[in-house]
Amino acid sequence: MSATGPAIAVAGATKIYRRYAREAHGTLKSALLSRRRTVRGEGGVVALDEVGFTVAPGESLGVIGANGSGKSTLLKLLAGIVQPTRGSVAVRGRLAALLELGAGFHPEISGRDNIEITGLLLGLTKKQIAARFDDVVRFAGVEEFLDAPVKTYSSGMAVRLGFAIAAHSDPDVLLVDEVLAVGDEAFAHRALEKFSEFERAGKTLVFVSHDLGLVAERCRRALWLDHGRLEADGPAGEVVARYRERVATDEGQRRAGDAGAGGRIGSGVATVEVVRLLDGEGRPVGRLRSGQAAFVEMVVRAPDALSDFAFGIQIATVAGTVVFGTNTALEGLQAERFAGDARVVVEIPALDLAPGVYTLDAAVHARDGAPYDYRRDVLRFEVTADRAGTGVWSPARRWSFSGGIRWRP
Amino acid sequence: MREYPTGSRARVPLGPRNETEIVTFLQPLRRTWAQRALVAALVRRELAARYRGGALGFLWSFLNPLLLLLVYATVFRFVFAPRADVRPYALFLFGGVLVWGFVSAALIDAVETFRSNGPLLRKTTVAPEVFPAAAVGARLVHLVLALPVLAAAIVFAVVRGRVTLGPAVLEFPIVLALLALTLFGAALAVSALSVHFGDVRDIVANLLTLTFFLTPVLYPGDAVPERWRWLLRANPFACFFSGVHDTLFDFRPVPASGWLWMAGTAMVALAVGGAVFERLRDTLAEEA
After folding, report:
1. Which chain B residue has the Cα nearest residue A80?
2. How many CB atoms are located within 10 Å of the residue A169 CB?
3. Nearest CA to CA, how far is A5 from chain B (Å)?
4. What range defines the domain where residue A377 resides?
5. pTM of the complete model
6. Both A14 and A155 in a single domain?
7. Is residue A260 part of a domain?
């Protein structure tokens, strides 16, 4: 074992799952009676296709990609839970896999006993478990429940305990699959702190997540898997940006294919006919630069005159987090009369959104909110920026420094 | 270059297997041994989970054999008179029935073990052989917990002058150990096969029912007519039950041939079970 070799080396790794695992030779009887030998690997599902990369010790690697792109299979290969159909996977050093926190917990036995078993599962000795026991319990915050069966724990407690045990198993390589999605904010924060600790200690971290912002922020490098193939491998910020671009493009094509497929509810007393996003020059666009001016234009129609009406828009992330929403009633406009065809324009002088893909809802509704025509996800747009950041807000900003800080030109 | 703690699931999966590794069927045994602390913990977990919540707790371990003993004593004293001349018949039955309970429960549990431990298998890097080992281990502990009842029955019979105790009773733990090894070999095979084949459970259950009557449990081995003896020899469990009867009922030392049969059976079971398991091992996490 050389001190400078990679912590993880994957070469030409291919994983093919048999499509009909059970039907192929469902019963022992039929397998014994039939003379034909089933040929393995034929007609299977290719979960990973010739994937190769190496990870240096101390590197943190994010893995992104759509559902079913092979992320979890890759982690299982790295963990040694499944074996590659072809190619090789090598991991150096002690490994801990957080594929599902608390996977080893037995609901009927106490937290204390579960800590011991989980520790043993992670390859610790009984002595090591005893030495770390108090730290684990403190990290998880389950002191008072140690002797209660785990089935009485809240899901948050169980997750914390599962994470605490794995985090204290002192691995050289830590594989993490989307586990931060389950805990609360405080737990996620502590978990991230723990990851930073790992990094400082020169441990290798492989991190699968749908949270692109987190990957861009936490990882220096990222892999993008697409249908089992390695689509990109490079600096996390770049890979994430390219991935976002692809998602936006695909989304745009999907939209073009079936226009107006977004949800639409309402009585139909008035309707939203057309919704467009315009840039500062009034050109319809699907992509905007962060901080630029934008216009949302609605063509609306009320066949019969109305006195109770309001127009609204709402912007949300693709994941569904509402970024901003308002309507004319909230803005304090008093409705008087709306009849026939009309045009509504909302001007946003500076669209200070973080890079990413957003959805737009547009609606005409009664002042009490009862919808006449509410069009959910009526269009999507992408926001781009030169500078990366996390979250959804990307305000105009300026840094200043004084004293002994210098930057390269 | 893969350097996992000994006994963990992964091994170097690069190309053809290293021929200098120890014989493959020994691998599952080696890994189980390396993980014995985990096996012990899983056994404890199994027992704790089973008895938690029941007011009688571990008393159930005693109660079930006690009830069995009562039923056998009553039925075979007042209802059926056994043809074979073994007295007291209830005591004769008791040891065999207890041990047979171990055999059948261990194998049935082994069939189920990967299903019930699916999450562990799919989501952790545990060495899978610990599960059949723990299934057999838990049932072995059950049996050991019931032994005081059997001991009490023997003492009772001795006090009443029905049997004469001999030092051969001390050979019973060796018989039990060899049986447990045999069952571990069988458990390795059936647990791995049941992941791939839906009917293993039924096959095992039916074979057990059949084998029960082909095994000297209800009758002593030497009561079988000579022309049917080959059936007993073909039955891998028969030699162990002759051993049980020798050590727990007749209190005579197990003959050398008996030891040979038992040791041979255990070795064959471990070799075959280990080989089957090793062959299917890599696919367990995918298919369980």
Report:
1. B10
2. 21
3. 10
4. 266-384
5. 0.69
6. yes
7. no
